[in-house]
């Protein structure tokens, strides 16, 4: 089965600081998805990466997929309290489109 | 569109009782997924449907769990009998063929005492 390990498990940063969350797979990824979950709510889609070396950005969040397609990073620049939440990476389980397995999540707190 | 709608938002029940969680996917979506989230195990896929047909239920933990999708606009996840270890947040998500992302509901917080 697809195992996704996220690090760190939790993170507390001062507002304005940059941060990086990592997601590592035991197998080559067909597709890597990043979601954000606000406490007590459902998951919201951030980005999807498919090609080795691919990089995507949305506002102050940048996600990258390495060339071997086994590791992804999510980088937040100049963090804000609105960035707080749980970030989860998900993998396309069988190259079947959107049937995803998820990593354990990274809990982010941003101190004002 | 109102998004994926789950009910109830919170459910507290006693061990041994039957629990039914409900989900209304986004209109036009042909995929529906049930996930369970706990601190220990994270977010786990339980079962998913395509065009109302169960495709993969390998994530359903035990025979106590069952899921149905009688039509394109409604699905249920039933636990009978419930146990304290079933306490978790249960999410429903929907999507459609060719779409790269899942649309999640707000979840049902289940507590089995």
Keywords:
heterodimer; A: 112 residues; mainly beta; five-stranded antiparallel β-sheet; 0% helix; B: 113 residues; seven-stranded mixed β-sheet; 11 strands; globular
Please provide a written account of the structure.
The complex is a heterodimer of chains A (112) and B (113). Chain A has no helices and eleven strands. By secondary structure, chain A is mostly beta strands. In chain A, the strands form two sheets. In chain A, strands 2, 4, 5, 9, 10 and 11 form a six-stranded mixed beta sheet that branches. In chain A, a hairpin with a 7-residue loop joins strand 9 (85-92) and strand 10 (100-102). The N and C termini of chain A lie far apart (40 Å). With 113 residues, chain B is mostly beta strands. Chain B has no helices and eleven strands. Chain B has strands spanning 5-7, 10-13, 19-24, 31-38, 42-50, 53-56, 65-71, 74-79, 88-95, 103-104, 108-112. In chain B, strands 2, 4, 5, 6, 9, 10 and 11 form a seven-stranded mixed beta sheet that branches. The N and C termini of chain B lie far apart (36 Å). The mean pLDDT of chain B is 94. Classes of the chains: A mainly beta (112), B mainly beta (113). Chain A binds chain B through residues 31, 33, 40-45, 48, 88, 93, 97-105, and chain B through 4, 31, 33, 42-45, 48, 56, 91, 93, 95, 97-107.
